[in-house]
Specification:
The chain has nine helices and no strands. The protein is an all-alpha fold and 211 residues long. The protein has one domain. Helix 2 packs across helix 8, helix 4 packs antiparallel against helix 8 and helix 7 crosses helix 8. The radius of gyration is 19 Å and the shape is globular. The relative contact order is 0.18.
Length: 211
């Protein structure tokens, strides 16, 4: 039997015997997010000016960005968990990039140049670097457990996509606590906070998702 025929046979077998992958991913993120939400409620809580923040374009754009990242990472996670993936998940990254570019350009045009460094550093950088990985732990564990029933072509890439999805879910939750709404801060520190989660996901995926 040729390799292509073997892979096609495995894919067909998976389609008949396993539960829908998309549903499993959504369920895993939701279950993990419940644990993260409990940690958020006990140790962090929403920012005190949340109602007023919704009236500002920076906060709204921050939410739009993390939600777009959540959607893009979901598509990547589902696609890369399959034995064969088309790569169409990359289209989901386009809105994330566009929102990031628009936000960054708007900030640089509207904010005085003398304030750029202050907006970049913000006031919660260290909290951001720790909170997002903490919030991502439960979703990542749930995703890796769910994807053990899948058959990814690259376990490491599937694990990395799981890490990206867990980090995006964590960033969405953390955004309601974070007082730093500048796109300069969000694009820098949220991204840096996601990197270790993605790397851990790749390492664990390489070991746990092999078939």
């Amino acid at each position: 039997m040729k390799t292509e025929q073997l892979v096609a046979s495995l894919v067909a077998d998976r389609a008949q015997t396993s539960f829908p992958l998309g549903r499993a991913v959504v369920r895993a993120v939701a279950l993990g997010a419940l644990v993260s939400l409990a940690i958020f409620a006990l140790g962090f809580g929403p920012r005190v000016d949340l109602a007023a923040a919704f009236a500002t374009w920076r906060f709204d754009l921050k939410l739009l960005l993390v939600l777009a990242a959540l959607v893009a990472a979901s598509g990547a996670c589902i696609a890369l968990a399959r034995p064969l993936s088309s790569g169409t998940w990359r289209r989901g990254v386009v809105p994330v990039v566009l929102i990031a570019v628009v936000g960054l350009a708007s900030e640089l045009l509207l904010a005085p140049p003398g304030s750029w460094a202050t907006r970049l550093v913000g006031s919660n950088a260290l909290v951001c670097l720790t909170a997002i990985p903490i919030f991502a732990l439960a979703p990542l564990a749930a995703l890796l457990l769910a994807l053990r029933r899948a058959a990814p072509a690259s376990p490491a890439l599937a694990g990395a996509a799981s890490g990206a999805l867990a980090a995006a879910a964590a960033a969405t939750l953390y955004a309601f606590h974070c007082f730093d709404d500048s796109p300069l801060f969000v694009l820098t520190w949220y991204s840096l906070a996601a990197i270790p989660v993605i790397l851990v996901g790749a390492a664990l995926g390489h070991r746990l998702l092999r078939w």
